[in-house]
Automatic annotation (TrEMBL):
Protein name per the record: NAD(P)H-quinone dehydrogenase
Cofactors demanded by this protein: FAD
Annotated Pyridine nucleotide-disulphide oxidoreductase dimerisation domain residues: 393-500
Keywords: FAD, Flavoprotein
Matches recorded under PANTHER family: MERCURIC REDUCTASE (PTHR43014), NAD(P)H DEHYDROGENASE (QUINONE) (PTHR43014:SF1)
């Protein structure tokens, strides 16, 4: 059973409360903002991404009547234009990077005439598969929700500023055809996600200047892709298209790619990029991107101009919270437009919750899903533990991948945490040698006083899978000795996790 929340049942009211209250009865109920709303409650969820559809399943499980309003398709951008399609594309590119070790392993590829030939990607097939997988996943989600008795409406939602005498609120829905309807709700969840940030001097056209949501319009491998932005999205796409055979130039405004990640991991990935022929322009900032005939020109702030066939502008996202009537309904927003939430997903609006990228808490589908579940557990009176970001694992799908969990080495080096660090190159692992893996490492961090595992980093193929044992250790507060004393398969890559734990014995 989930532990009961230690959060107060009533959040402190804002200094100025713009929320309209219809009567003294509602005003009294408003003061018990999180009072449980039991079986039969009407829940309206605006947004059908991970935060929305996971919340819908929980709410239905707890006996609520649930209605999901989604304008794009079930799964939202995570399934249709972001996580699922991008990782499908990256999976194809990864197969091509695996062949780097083929000669060392004694593998040769033969062409039709019997001579050696190189593998290549057919982008028409790749893009078709990307789109079909995304649509299939979206359809599966919709089918699951409908099977559970959850109503779904295709459209956009806007909150009514007024509360009824019973404390309910209308959600006004506008369909793609312009139709209007209203749904009465006891509880509302905002899970509208985010859209690509658009720069005034780099307006996307969907053909040559693209956002991450438009990359699947391409049916051919770009001759020369210029990627503006070296964060997670930029690095993932740059690495993927480089592996697929495109010439790639990555424009990074910082000293290195992936500036927010573990320094050793980021340096390794940048080295891999350069070794594979990618041009990385560090400490370079794009001033403008424009069409130039059948290509693009990327003008840098120092006056240099980078010419390419296509440009991906990957400079973050913008929360999709505009024109929803949120502030009029008493929901506080940050200056950037993110919905302000606490650790159980409550907003400042009466019985209004929020989850996912629209909150700006952490832009991960796993976090959005957990925020959505927590919101419904809390709103419907179930046992709930507040969101704990210290146990969230994250992964960057470059080749090799970068997976992280818990405390960072930067925090330890800065003296914020009294931790011990071990760093083991993956190349010394027996299984890695057999697979021809030469680049990557395992890091493990432990608390010096207790020996408890407090964090880790893995850079390796399938790091997203390998990080799970460390995630369990961090979440369950296992010591390095407990991790070290668990049997691992020999030979296996997970053997390096056990070895790292042994190194930290009495560290």
């Amino acid at each position: 059973m989930r532990p009961v929340s230690s959060e107060p049942t009533t959040p402190p009211p804002p200094a100025t409360d713009p929320r309209p209250v219809a009567s003294d009865e509602v005003r009294a109920e408003h003061s018990a903002h999180a009072s449980p709303v039991r079986v039969g409650s009407r829940v309206v969820i605006i947004g059908g991404g991970p935060g929305g559809y996971e919340a819908a399943l929980v709410a239905r499980q707890l006996g609520a009547e649930v209605h999901v309003v989604e304008r794009q398709g079930m799964g939202g951008s995570a399934v249709l234009t972001d996580v699922v399609p991008s990782k499908t594309l990256i999976a194809t590119a990864e197969w091509l990077t695996v062949t780097e070790q083929a000669p060392e392993l004694g593998i040769e590829s033969a062409g039709a005439d019997g001579e050696a030939g190189a593998l290549h990607a057919d982008m028409a097939v790749v893009d078709k598969r990307v789109v079909e997988l995304a649509r299939s996943q979206s359809a599966d989600i919709r089918t699951r929700l409908e099977r559970e008795g959850i109503a779904i409406t295709a459209g956009t939602g806007r909150l009514d500023p007024e509360l009824s005498a019973a404390g309910t609120r209308l959600v006004h829905v506008t369909t793609a055809s312009g139709g209007e309807s209203a749904i009465e709700a006891d509880i509302i969840l905002i899970a509208t996600g985010a859209t690509p940030r658009i720069l005034p001097t780099a307006q996307p056209d969907g053909e040559r200047i693209l956002t991450w949501a438009q990359m699947y319009n391409l049916t051919d491998i770009p001759e020369h892709l210029v990627v503006v932005g070296s964060g997670v999205t930029g690095a993932e796409f740059a690495g993927a298209y480089n592996a697929l055979g495109a010439e790639v130039t990555l424009v990074s405004s910082r000293d290195r790619v992936l500036p927010g990640e573990d320094e050793d991991a980021a340096e390794l990935i940048e080295g891999v990029f350069r070794r594979r022929g990618m041009t990385v322009l560090s400490r370079s900032r794009a001033a403008a991107v424009r069409r130039a005939g059948d290509g693009v020109e990327v003008e840098l702030t120092d006056g240099r101009v980078v010419e390419g066939s296509h440009c991906l502008v990957a400079v973050g996202g913008v929360p999709s919270t505009a024109d929803m009537g949120l502030e009029e309904a008493g929901v506080s927003l940050t200056d950037a437009g993110h919905v302000v939430v606490d650790r159980v997903s409550r907003t400042s609006g009466y019985r209004i919750y929020a989850a996912g990228d629209c909150t700006g808490v952490l832009p991960l589908a796993s976090v959005a899903a957990m925020q959505g579940r927590i919101a419904m557990w809390h709103a419907l009176g179930d046992a709930v533990a507040p969101l704990d970001l210290s146990v969230v694992a994250a992964n960057i799908f470059t080749a090799p991948e970068i997976a992280t969990i818990g405390v960072s080495q930067r925090q330890i080096a800065a003296g914020e945490v009294d931790g011990a660090v071990t760093h083991l190159p993956i190349a010394r692992n027996a299984r890695a040698k057999m697979l021809g893996i030469t680049e990557g490492f395992v890091k493990l961090f432990s608390d010096r006083a207790t020996g408890v595992v407090i964090g880790g980093v893995i850079v390796a193929p399938r790091a997203s899978e390998l990080i799970y044992p460390i995630t369990i250790a961090v979440a369950q507060r296992l010591t390095v000795d407990q991790v070290a004393n668990v049997f691992t398969i020999y030979p296996s890559l997970t053997g390096s996790i056990s070895e790292a734990a042994r190194v930290l014995h009495h560290a």
